[in-house]
Amino acid sequence: MERPVTPARPHHKLTEDGRRMREVLSYSRRGSRFTPRQAEAWAAHQERWVIPDEAVDKPDFTLEHWFGRRAPLVVEIGSGVGEATAPLAAARPAYDVLAFEVWRPGIADTLWKLDEAGADNVRLCGVDAVWSMEHLLGEGSVEELWTFFPDPWRKTRHHKRRLVSPDFARLAASRLRPGAAWRLATDWADYAEQMLEVLDAEPALEGGVVERWAERPVTRFERKGVEAGRTITDLCYRRA
User: Fold this and answer.
1) Residue 97: phi, psi to the nearest 5?
2) Going along the chain, which residue ranges are E strands?
3) Which tens digit of pLDDT belongs to each residue from 183-240?
4) Does residue 147 sit in helix, strand or coil?
5) pTM of the full predicted structure?
6) Which of 32, 72, 181, 234 could be stapled to 104 by a disulfide with Cβ–Cβ 3.0 to 4.6 Å?
């Protein structure tokens, strides 16, 4: 029996006997129906600004091809509807911003926000960010990493799905260049505590809780947290 070819992306992994493997991921894929505005933005900008999932499986994949240049790289994990992505990217035209988001309507919303902001330096990717950072990004290649309001997976039995884990902290630290920052924010106190515990334990990172990053736009996730009476925690760690 021929051994099956192992697909690249995590949601396509197979067991040794060729059966599809269920992965424990830090996100869930929601509905993909577009509003008219989202559909219009997708039609107008998807080809230029969205990296197709299947592109990362090609052996000659490079970010330089998709950005059309070589520039310092910023990575955002969980860009949502682009409320932070668009203004932050527009203020950094000399940087390339790789934004990971699995919710396609959110990507479509981001596209029109990028167009309005005049931010041509963003490429969106719907492939698992953890796999992508491991396989598509080289060590020391990231100038800054943003993780704003990642899914808190509130139920205790789901905490294993949280993005910020020892394994991911180790991976993220390896991708940051020395001195580069990982900026995080959450409105869930127990997730903030977990982030501190995990990131303080990673020897390649130095940092902790900081004042709110003034450049970070207030997003709907932050507004919801404030309205619910939750405390917003900002953290910043740098590669030692």
Assistant:
1) -120, 115
2) 50-51, 73-77, 96-100, 122-125, 142-148, 176-186, 205-210, 233-239
3) 999 999 999 999 999 999 999 999 999 999 999 999 988 999 999 999 999 999 999 9
4) strand
5) 0.87
6) 32
Active site residue 167: no
Tokens of 38: 């989202």
Question: Token digits for 155?
Answer: 């139920």
Q: Write out the two tokens for 52.
A: 């197709």
Catalytic residue among 53, 151, 200, 234: 151
Distances from the Cα of 114 to the Cα of 139, 170, 195, angstroms: 28, 31, 30
| Residue 115 near residue 67 (C-beta atoms within 8 A) | no
107-154 pLDDT per residue, tens: 999 999 999 999 999 999 999 999 999 999 999 999 999 999 999 877
Q: Where are the beta strands (DSSP E) in 78-204?
A: 96-100, 122-125, 142-148, 176-186
